[in-house]
Amino acid sequence: QVQLVESGGGLVQPGGSLRLSCAASGRTFSSLAMGWFRQAPGKEREFVARITWYGSSTYYADSVKGRFTISRDNAKNTVYLQMNSLKPEDTAVYYCAASIAPRRVVPGSVDYWGQGTQVTVSS
Fold first, then answer.
1. How far are the Cα atoms of 37, 94, 103 from residue 73, in angstroms, in the given order?
2. pLDDT, tens digit (0-9, with 9 covering 90-100), for 89-112
């Protein structure tokens, strides 16, 4: 069983930055594809970003491309989401997600979820 624990959420002004972290345990981290989803009030959960288990490929939703960066540190069993130029529409609960390789972190193919961390972008 894989446990995912997110941290780093909070309140930030428009244009600001936050870095989310997700610490994984329970399985060899390098065997996990990792990603982030988010869910705003009244909306469905949506894909944000994902990174392959070996870390050489990343993918982003069009809404965050150029502003968010996903990365991973296999030595620390942690995946990160650096969020820059934040907008009010980025406000949501952000969820860390993991899939056992070679499965990908895409909707319908996620094996494990974190509990979520709130990100609020407001002045």
1. 19, 19, 19
2. 999 999 999 999 888 888 889 999
